[in-house]
Design a protein that fits this description.
The chain is mainly α and about 70 residues long. About 60% of the residues lie in helices and about 0% in strands. It comes from Bradyrhizobium japonicum. This is Transposase.
Length: about 70
């Protein structure tokens, strides 16, 4: 049976998602208006939302539902 390769992330998920969003926004700037540009911007927004959600879920003020 093969063992899975595991490695420790050196950068947090929030930072990786924020960096991906930044990279996608920069890529979208160089694209002409159209479906490809809109898809790239949509992916950037999704990465930003994921980053914010992860930060929110890790926040110390988050309380479990009653």
């Amino acid at each position: 049976m093969q063992r899975r390769r595991r490695f420790t992330q050196t950068v947090s998920l929030e930072e990786r998602l924020a960096e991906e969003a930044k990279r996608l926004r920069e890529a979208a700037r160089s694209l002409p208006p159209g479906p490809l540009r809109e898809d790239t911007l949509r992916k950037a927004r999704q990465a930003e939302i994921g980053s914010h959600m992860s930060q929110w879920l890790r926040s110390p003020g988050l309380q479990p539902p009653d």
